[in-house]
Amino acid sequence: MSDVNLLVLASYFKGERFMQQAHKRGAKVYLLTQEKLLKSPWPRESITEVFAQANGSPLEHTLNAVSYLARSVRIDRIVPMDDYDVEVAAALREHLRIPGMGDTTARHFRDKLAMRVKAQEEGIPVPEFVHVLNYDAIREFIARVPAPWMLKPRSEASASGIGKIQNAEQLWREIEKKGDRASHFLLERYLPGDVYHVDSIVSERKVVFAACHQCRRPPFDVAHGGGIFATSTVERGSADELALKAINDQILTKLGLVRGVSHVEFIRSSVDGKFYMLESAARVGGAHIAEMIEASTGINLWQEWANIEIDRGTPAYQLPKTREEYGGVLMTLARQERPDFSAYTDPEIVYHAPEANHAGLVVRATKHARVQQLLENYVERFGRDFCAVLPAVARPSN
Fold it and tell me: How high is the pLDDT of residue 325?
């Protein structure tokens, strides 16, 4: 049992299993969310108190609100549930002098420029890039690196807000349109290739669990062109898995993650065959990746994250027994509010995504080939039965 007081930040509805496990361990969970999420089905039986801010509240208001709470509650840990909460949690820790990831390290897992600069310094392969800041540096970059390029916001999540730039004229127009916000972007060489992600548990700077997966289509293509997101376990013991785990270990060590969970994205260039880091995040992967990992390994990332946050290395973290099966997940926007899956009857289906106007499945099998067969079949059927396409919308940063 524990007498730890956890302040959980959630700007999206997620992290229920984290809160339930923390409560089970005896911690008191205080949830800070947004007004629009108050009616979400939070596990209130596991939460001591729920607080809500006005939607889109600035950081100063959050600092004031949490400082007021701290007058009566001793806050021991501050834990962000989503990418957008990572930098807020870091600022709160700095302000209240609470142990955990501070501003500088948080930028390695939130700011796409900071993570690339640090990775490059440490010899970790990343696509060539330049900060959208000094015009001479930008001119040198576009003269040396052939188009197309990717124009990326530094602080959005995943593929949100990313644009593909075809030529210099388009680039300068985009920079001019961004005005004073231009320095919040970076420009990067476009690398064609396959996208992978490694989802990890880290305890006391050591990666104690890592699961490697390959996306069927790059998330950028799905986010900006619509269609079906699908990802699945990389074949166990393969050269790809070994290479991904090695570079993932290097990234998490060099970027400074002490404890928690991570979601690191890679691209294997179709030009030179090498893996390059695209993004590192100190969070659980979205799109029901956690449910896929639990199906294939028995490990629930949210629950283990709660254990790590509570214990902080004392006693030493012990990973539960795992299994080495294979998992896959498919997700798409759906034309129907509640899609009908009655025609999907394969016994390998272990989970249905609950979100309205989304169709999603998780499958589990003992063989890699079986998961690939199911995903290939379901991608085609999802396109026919469910798939809806809406334009990508970037979430404004606070």
Answer: 98
Has residue 277 got a pLDDT over 90?
A: yes
Cβ atoms < 10 Å from Cβ of 242:
11
| Position 390 in a domain | no
pLDDT class for 398, splitting at 50, 70, 90?
A: very low
How far apart, in whole angstroms, are the C-alpha atoms of residue 161 and residue 84? 14
Cα→Cα distances 381→137, 220, 222, 309, 389, Å: 48, 22, 17, 41, 15
Domain with 167, as residue range(s), is 128-189
Average pLDDT over residues 32-56: 97
> Residues 178, 230: one domain?
no
Strands, sheet with 163-165, edge to edge from the N-terminal-most edge strand: 129-131, 185-189, 149-153, 163-165
* Cα gap 56→166, rounded to integer Å: 33
Maximum CA pair distance of the chain? 61
CATH of residue 30's domain is 3.40.50.20
Residue 31, amino acid = L
For every residue of 78-110, DSSP letters joined together read: EEESSHHHHHHHHHHHHHHT-SS--HHHHHTTT
Which DSSP string do the residues of 109-169 spell out, in sequence order?
A: TT-HHHHHHHHHHTT-----EEESS-HHHHHHHHHHSPSPEEEEESSS-TTTT-EEE-SHH
Clarify whether residues 258 and 344 are in a common domain: yes
371: in domain: yes
Are both 241 and 366 inside the same structural domain? Answer: yes
